[in-house]
Amino acid sequence: MTRSRSMSAPLARTAAAAAVAALAFALPAQAQPSLEKLKQFKVATTDLNIPVVPQTGRNADAIRANLRNVKMPPGFSIDLFAVVPDARMMAIAPSTNMLFVSTRKTTVWAVTDRNSDGQADEVKSFAPSLKFTNPNGVCWTKDGFLIVVEHNRVLNFPAAEFFYEGPDVAVIEVVPQGKLIPAEHESFNHGARVCDVGPDGRLYISLGQPYNVQPRNLVQTFDEIGIGGIIRMNAFDGSGREVFARGIRNSVGQDFNPKDGSLWWTDNQVDGLGDDIPPGELNRSTARGQHFGFPWTNGGVRIAGGPAAADLKDLPAPAGMIEPQVNFPAHQAQLGMTFYTGNMFPEKYRGGMFVASHGSWNRTKASGALINFVPLKADGTAGTSEIFAEGWLDANGIYRGRPVDVAVMKDGSLLISDDFAGAIYRVTYRAP
């Protein structure tokens, strides 16, 4: 009998990482020596004792006290899972009771519940020998590689959940600095990327466009690059890059429906048109090449030629434009979203979506800072959205927290990140 020479997917990926490292070993030192050393599986001479974030004390007690104001349906309870400064998007590890948490600053956090009691025991920075720049996007490949998407770079970390203890970890540079978008289009505005790996194994990345509404001379350019859209590529070398979806203003949340493979994502609305327009969006992509209307329209409100985009008055409506699945109240800033794949919550929530509303910043009266639930109909489209959890915006209009992302733990509990309070909450259910 002839022995097969084929290699399993995980082994193939490991071999690929080793090959990258071997190639890097022969390269001269570059501008970022820490990255070069990590690509070579060498140490970067960083202190092995990584400081941890305190999980007890006055701050943790105050966060728990604020949670008493959060209202949810009967049977649900919420508690502090971890104190995590500037906590943004969450990537729950495939094989261990831990997760990686992004920020819009220079840190990715490794959060570990070592004794499996439903609260984190340790929070510390991941790969501190690297200098991250707005590492907002974190997600996993199907075989356990952690992707970190920065403002203008993409990195891939083999077996991160098993090799995060020290400051030096192996890394694959998927997209070098300055190659995700042209450097001339970098901006502090809309630079927080999100990512997910699709059923096809490719890496999907949202690229918010860096304007309130882009000027006329950049509409076609952005469409071609994928700015104001979602791109996809090979998760290990960046090859096969293509624009998957267009007509998006700034998506900071996405997830694939495990039942039909469609990609769902949130989109933030145009500012400066008043308190009540345009609405926020929840969209569904079912095929490559679909256009979702921006900048011609946003949440069903005509933008081109209006006060925010007078120079677009002659812009034609996109052919075959796809309408939003859900229109949310204006300026609540929907960000992270996830399909509920657990079994802890009642049947009505299974297979539906939870969506985090960060809260308004330019509205006369603040709105948002809550979690929505959106059920799915039998045909795979969205049902009517409802508020699932609220109370982070108090009666005086003061934010006590601002939810960013939602993620489902293996036990079926729901995690909610909050970059204002610097925390992650855990929602559980017990029948009343």
Describe the structure.
- Mean pLDDT is 91; it is low at 1-31.
- The chain has helices at residues 9-25, 33-39, 58-66, 219-225, and strands spanning 76-83, 90-92, 98-101, 109-112, 122-125, 137-140, 145-149, 154-158, 172-175, 195-197, 203-207, 229-233, 242-246, 254-256, 263-267, 280-285, 290-291, 297-298, 301-302, 326-328, 334-339, 353-357, 370-374, 386-390, 403-408, 414-418, 423-429.
- Strand 6 and strand 7 form a beta hairpin.
- It contains four helices and 27 strands.
- The strands form seven sheets. A five-stranded mixed β-sheet has the order 10-11-12-13-17, covered by helices on one side. Strands 1-27-26-25 form a four-stranded antiparallel β-sheet.
- 9% of the residues lie in helices and 28% in strands.
- Helix 1 crosses helix 2.
In short:
With 432 residues, the chain is mainly beta. The protein has helices at residues 9-25, 33-39, 58-66, 219-225; strands spanning 76-83, 90-92, 98-101, 109-112, 122-125, 137-140, 145-149, 154-158, 172-175, 195-197, 203-207, 229-233, 242-246, 254-256, 263-267, 280-285, 290-291, 297-298, 301-302, 326-328, 334-339, 353-357, 370-374, 386-390, 403-408, 414-418, 423-429.
